[in-house]
């Protein structure tokens, strides 16, 4: 029961009034406020210490509005939160300039930077750690100011009275008073601290505290409101409008003292009512009833108080309280979801999910999203801004600019380019139609060439792709070049030793505008919040605009601030609403049902992280919040929640992650014990009925190509290999065109290096041919001179061709050096081949042949089997002989294995047949390819055997060629007949198969 509202008289002291925080609390409070309005015939000002009950109280005031009110009090009493009330101070314009959080961080950070030792002390040597430390220092300084500044209140009151004084002079006075007070307090506190860290902290506080700090502004605002009340009283000689202070949560001792003194001062000029919560009939545990003792410890209940608590438990017990224990995390989230669903089915419209276990609450939220728009979910715990899509997109740009001056990795680049906020058309100043598919094309090129990092590498990969397209009937795409140039130019602008904060902000804004990201972010609610957060970085008008930082320092600051920011989704109207909130936010609020998830002994109660620098004892000394105070507050909040709401589900996970049993919170256990005899409160173990059913074993996958499915009329050597390896795989990859999203493997891959090797070998052999044609060239004599010439040139060409690659990714240097070690032995192999009469003829030639088949409909089909041959040689002593060579960037062991299954991987046979069927296209008129071999570019050279084992020739060529011709015709006939394509392949093939998830190998 709430107490009767006091009768207002001429008393110059605050009136104390208490209300029971039960289901009728808001109504009782509203009726009291109306009573105050009627008694004083003035519109009261109601200030709530926390904002949670604001809307509920306004609604209750509307519901309880008395009839026939006189005009002057007909308006709803003004209800405002403490924070808003401070902001509304009438003379706030002349207060010292408010320092933003960022400016305060920077001020500490700059000082920390001067003293690296401090960072080591506090174990915050990384940039992120140093920013975290700066934040902790500020929190600690605020706590110190909170303890000291109340002593200044009377002086601030006097200062505020000097209205007419010049603002600058007034500000100087405020600074002076503050300085003196801090210097005095510093001496006192320094004597009490013994350790180095606290001493350093005090020094920070001594020199960093200024009149723009939030704590000082809070006191100035309070003094200002007081001054207004005083002026009104003095000018009208009448008491001002009543001031009702509603203390919704237990204050810190320091705040309690401050408010008591303030309310007393205020009461001299207007009626003041101090509303507190009365736990007498509602406290379910002794600590909720008795609170803290004078020492700040939990008070011990006497026999009478214990009896009161026991009575409260019996009186407040509701049938709608449920205890639900789940063994696993998923079960917990599911049962929370089910509870909410059941409440919704029962017609409850306003439900709360108390996120004591934030992870489980998040999971439930995700599960509830399937209910669609009929349930409005308001997450009052706030999403971290950094978890939104907008922040992830922005972060992808930060990751890009922080990469080394050579350029980002391809994954970082693609992640940025693929973010939905990047406007490619605007960036390149092209039409949206032209920009379609450009990034996908770039991705394909980078992945195909395994160009993993560095602007030069990307440009080279694009150049090669464009060259290939130009020489193979495709169309090169110059936009790709422009895209890389555009991004790299912006990246380059960030590569400076250090950046001034204001310049860095400007550069960032510039980037966002030029890349069209700004506009797109503005169209998204999380994006808007992000832009707003970024605006804090505009230090151009402040004293820190010229502070210089290294790029990683600045980026780390940016990320820390974004990490701190939270984002609340925009609400929509719906049939029912679910509020996800912390326990403290349920205070004096009304819900139809509450689901509290995470009621185990580890999470209920939950304590906030202690400040980095303060022990619990020091907190007590500073009259700040202590563990005991938090414990009492949570006991009261939970008592209030259980007492006010008919339906409360308390859920927890009964087994920890490590499999250890987890019990319910001690508060729940104590309630169970108290209710044991009268009305036992049983735990329900959440169990899910397993679904049962019969499944038929999966058979080996097989598919018949649909008659409308197009069959490719060009087959590359690798596609034919896929068909031979496993028809089902060919069906999935070539007929259906399904491809796994390719990824960049770890480390530098040889693919682009492999292409480079092929290209430089072609250049080298062309140069050799040209040199041989010179009449007096020394190399024509052969012997050591020729060998040395070849080694030197090959070395030179290698350096030159790899130069760009190395500029893009320094790790490629290792690949170049490995290859250079191969060169002498490669030259020896070449010389040996020349002794046998073979000469280099041409390289990198597109070749192919055509097979004519008749499909099942009797239509004649021309199928082109085509690829690109690495090299053709001709024999000097035999005008009709030619050979085909395939370079492999693989060791000989792999090549030998490949040779054993040549009919399944008949690349060389395809090139040979293509050259023989169309000698002029292969630049081999009059010659027949009779010899084919693989040549390793990665042979083992340190064992001295390289000369003998660099090449592997195909044996019995004529016979194999015949077999191959019969085989390919048969295979393609089967394919065109659209016969069943079965999944079968040895495990060695399946291991890397992209279609494995489709054929379900391993399930049959
Ligand atoms: S996993 Fe093996 S059986 Fe399945 S499609 Fe791939 S290669 Fe064929």
Protein described:
The longest helix is centred in the N-terminal third of the chain and has 26 residues, at about 165-190. The model has no long low-confidence stretch (mean pLDDT about 85). The protein has a 7-stranded parallel β-sheet with strand order 8-13-7-14-15-6-16, with helices on one face. Strands 18, 19, 20, 21, 22 and 23 form a 6-stranded mixed β-sheet that branches. Strands 1-5-4-2-3 form a 5-stranded parallel β-sheet, sandwiched between helices. It starts with 14 loop residues before the first strand and ends in a 5-residue tail after the last helix. Strand 19 and strand 20 (about 860-875) form a beta hairpin. It has about 1000 residues and is an alpha/beta fold. It is elongated and about 125 Å long. The structure holds iron/sulfur cluster.
Q: Helix/strand/pairing class, anyone?
A: alpha/beta
Taking pLDDT < 50 over at least 5 consecutive residues as the criterion, the unreliable ranges are: none
Strand content: 5-15%
Gross geometry:
elongated
Query: Mind telling me the C-alpha Rg?
Result: 40 Å
Largest sheet: 7 strands, parallel
Number of helices: 39
Mean pLDDT: 87
Q: What percentage of residues falls in helices of 4 or more residues?
A: 40-55%
Give the key terms.
1004 residues, alpha/beta, 7-stranded parallel sheet, 6-stranded mixed sheet, 39 helices, 13% strand, elongated, binds iron/sulfur cluster
């Amino acid at each position: 029961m709430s107490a009767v509202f006091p009768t207002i008289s001429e008393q110059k002291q605050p009136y104390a009034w208490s209300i029971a925080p039960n289901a009728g609390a808001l109504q009782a409070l509203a009726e009291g406020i109306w009573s105050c309005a009627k008694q004083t015939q003035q519109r009261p000002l109601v200030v709530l210490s926390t904002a949670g009950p604001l809307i509920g109280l306004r609604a209750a005031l509307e519901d309880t509005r008395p009839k026939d009110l006189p005009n002057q009090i007909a308006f709803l009493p003004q209800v405002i939160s403490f924070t808003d009330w401070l902001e509304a101070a009438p003379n706030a314009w002349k207060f010292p300039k408010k320092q933003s959080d960022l400016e305060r961080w920077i001020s500490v950070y700059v000082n920390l930077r001067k003293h690296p030792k401090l960072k080591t002390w506090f174990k915050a040597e990384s940039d992120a750690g140093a920013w975290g430390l700066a934040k902790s220092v500020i929190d600690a300084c605020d706590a110190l100011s909170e303890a000291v500044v109340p002593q200044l209140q009377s002086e601030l009151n006097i200062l505020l009275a000097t209205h007419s004084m010049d603002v600058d002079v007034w500000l100087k006075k405020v600074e002076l008073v503050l300085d003196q007070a801090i210097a005095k307090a510093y001496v006192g506190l320094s004597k009490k601290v013994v350790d180095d860290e606290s001493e350093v902290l005090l020094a920070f506080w001594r020199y960093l505290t200024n009149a723009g700090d939030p704590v000082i502004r809070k006191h100035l605002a309070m003094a200002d409101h007081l001054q207004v009340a005083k002026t009104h009283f003095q000018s009208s000689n009448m008491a001002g409008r009543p001031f009702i202070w509603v203390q919704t949560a237990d204050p810190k001792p320091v705040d309690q003292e401050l408010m008591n003194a303030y309310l007393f001062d205020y009461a001299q000029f207007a009626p003041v009512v101090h509303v507190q919560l009365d736990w007498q009939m509602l406290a379910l545990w002794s600590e909720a009833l008795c609170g803290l003792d004078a020492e700040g410890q939990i008070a011990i209940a006497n026999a009478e108080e214990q009896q009161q608590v026991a009575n409260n438990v019996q009186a407040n017990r509701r049938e709608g309280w449920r205890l639900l224990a789940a063994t696993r995390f998923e079960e917990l989230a599911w049962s929370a979801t089910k509870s909410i669903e059941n409440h919704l089915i029962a017609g409850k419209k306003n439900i709360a999910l108390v996120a004591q276990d934030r992870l489980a609450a998040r999971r439930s939220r995700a599960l509830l999203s399937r209910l669609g728009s009929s349930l409005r979910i308001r997450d009052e715990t706030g999403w971290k801004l950094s978890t939104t899509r907008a922040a992830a997109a922005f972060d992808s740009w930060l990751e890009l600019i922080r990469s080394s001056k050579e350029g980002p990795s391809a994954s970082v680049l693609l992640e940025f380019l693929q973010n939905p906020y990047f406007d490619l058309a605007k960036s390149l100043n092209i039409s949206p139609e032209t920009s379609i598919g450009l990034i996908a094309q770039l991705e394909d090129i980078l992945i195909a060439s395994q160009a993993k990092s560095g602007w030069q590498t990307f440009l080279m990969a694009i150049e090669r792709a464009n060259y290939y397209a130009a020489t193979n009937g495709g169309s090169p795409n110059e936009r790709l070049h422009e895209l890389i140039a555009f991004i790299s130019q912006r990246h380059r602008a960030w590569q400076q030793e250090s950046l001034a904060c204001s310049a860095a902000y400007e550069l960032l804004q510039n980037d966002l505008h030029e890349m069209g990201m700004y506009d797109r972010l503005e169209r998204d609610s999380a994006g808007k919040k992000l832009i707003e957060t970024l605006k804090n970085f505009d230090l151009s008008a402040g004293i820190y605009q010229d502070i210089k930082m290294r790029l990683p320092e600045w980026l780390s600051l940016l990320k820390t601030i974004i990490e701190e920011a939270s984002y609340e989704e925009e609400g929509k109207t719906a049939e029912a609403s679910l509020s996800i909130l912390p326990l403290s936010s349920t205070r004096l609020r009304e819900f139809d049902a509450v689901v509290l998830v995470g009621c185990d002994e580890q999470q209920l109660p939950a304590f906030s992280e202690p400040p980095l620098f303060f022990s619990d004892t020091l907190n007590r000394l500073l009259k700040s919040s202590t563990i005991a105070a938090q414990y009492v507050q949570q006991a009261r909040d939970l008592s209030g929640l259980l007492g006010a709401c008919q339906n409360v589900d308390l859920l927890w996970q009964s087994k920890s992650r490590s499999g250890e049993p987890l019990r319910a919170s001690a508060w729940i256990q104590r309630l169970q014990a108290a209710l044991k005899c009268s009305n036992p409160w049983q735990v329900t173990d959440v169990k899910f009925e397993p679904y049962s059913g019969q499944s038929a074993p999966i058979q080996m996958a097989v598919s018949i190509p649909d008659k409308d499915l197009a069959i490719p009329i060009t087959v590359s050597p690798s596609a034919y290999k896929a068909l031979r390896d496993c028809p089902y795989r060919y069906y999935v990859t070539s007929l259906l065109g399904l491809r796994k999203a390719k990824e960049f493997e770890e480390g530098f891959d040889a693919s682009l290096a492999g292409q480079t090797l092929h290209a430089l070998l072609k250049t080298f052999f062309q140069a050799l041919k040209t040199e041989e044609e010179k009449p007096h060239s020394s190399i024509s004599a052969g012997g050591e001179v020729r060998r040395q010439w070849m080694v030197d040139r090959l070395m030179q060409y290698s350096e030159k061709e790899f130069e760009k690659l190395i500029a893009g990714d320094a790790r490629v240097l290792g690949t170049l050096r490995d290859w250079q070690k191969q060169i002498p032995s490669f030259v020896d192999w070449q010389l040996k081949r020349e002794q046998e009469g073979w000469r280099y003829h041409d390289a990198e030639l597109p070749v192919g042949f055509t097979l004519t088949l008749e499909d099942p409909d009797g239509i004649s089909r021309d199928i082109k089997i085509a690829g690109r041959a690495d090299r053709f040689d001709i024999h000097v002593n035999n005008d009709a002989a030619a050979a085909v060579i395939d370079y492999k960037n693989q060791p000989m062991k792999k090549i030998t294995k490949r040779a054993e299954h040549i009919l399944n991987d008949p690349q060389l046979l395809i090139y040979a047949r293509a050259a023989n069927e169309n000698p002029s296209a292969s630049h081999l008129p009059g010659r027949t390819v009779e010899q084919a071999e693989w040549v390793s570019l990665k042979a083992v050279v340190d064992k001295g055997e390289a000369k003998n084992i660099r090449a592997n020739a195909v044996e019995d060529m004529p016979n194999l060629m015949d077999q191959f011709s019969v085989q390919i015709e048969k295979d393609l006939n089967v394919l065109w007949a659209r016969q069943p394509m079965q999944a079968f392949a040895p495990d060695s093939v399946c291991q890397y198969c992209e279609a494995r998830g489709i054929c379900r190998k391993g399930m049959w």
